[in-house]
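Exam prep: given the inputs below (a chain plus flavin-adenine dinucleotide), describe the expected output before reading on.
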Amino acid sequence: MSLNIVVCIKQVPNPDYFSKITLDPETGAISRKNIPTILNPVDENAIEEALRLRERFSGKVTAISMGPPQAKEVLDWALTLGVDESVLLCDRAFAAADSLATAYVLAAGIRKIGNVDIVLCGNESVDGATEQVGPQVAELLDIPHICNATDISLPNGRQAVVRRNIEYGHLTIEGCVPLLITVSREINQPRTATAEGILTLMDKVSRTWGVKDIEVDNDAIGLAGSPTRVGKSYEQKLERERMILTGSVDEMVAAAIKRLKAEALV
Ligand SMILES: Cc1cc2nc3c(=O)[nH]c(=O)nc-3n(C[C@H](O)[C@H](O)[C@H](O)COP(=O)(O)OP(=O)(O)OC[C@H]3O[C@@H](n4cnc5c(N)ncnc54)[C@H](O)[C@@H]3O)c2cc1C
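Solution:
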């Protein structure tokens, strides 16, 4: 039993620098200039799960990303971790896409890869965080999906048994391949890159596909294909005062009471 697995990965701004993201006061556009980027954290878990499935059943793992040319960095990282091939979906026509137009292009790329058994995604990105892309890709590929997986087993290689947490327990859901699964961070502990993995990078296949390489309707991609409209963007002003107390517990309690009394709050 051999599995053809695709893992969707996204390059995102490093959350440590979110406070440095600015808004253009005129246009409201987000400026991510000079903000370092990383692989979306839960996508590392999706890569790890894909590699574990391949190790168990054999087959191939392809990492795919839609993004600007620099998104190749996260695809190269995936290749050093052990992914077999990568596809970057990169074209100016894809820019300014919302989650639906992003999923549409990803689905077209996955269709071009062909005969895919399992598509793995993270459950959410740390920047957009809509949790929509995985389910939308599944709908566009007309395959079932299961979200927020904390465990995936494939007893016979075709029937997936997926566990996901819910508020007061967990659900176990079964589904047949082909299917799409979004994973949560608890699912595994991602491996780290090895020197051997880095050395294999040169021998791996990395493709870049633009609008002419995949079958897409030009009206369904980029800004034109995005039904979401951003009404207004604004910077939230924190007007509450913050006070950090230091010292022993008794000293901090005494200082807090003194301050609350001074403000006539107690
Ligand atoms: C009107 C509008 C305009 C926008 N314009 C821009 C823009 O110009 N530039 C910009 O960077 N963003 C832009 N965005 C944000 C961008 O569309 C979203 O980041 C993107 O749609 C993914 O949604 P998400 O981050 O909420 O993903 P989620 O659904 O939270 O992500 C879940 C998972 O889906 C997969 N995934 C998500 N995105 C990708 C991807 N691109 N490639 C591969 N896998 C992916 C990953 O596995 C991820 O873990 C815009 C959004 C809107 C609404």
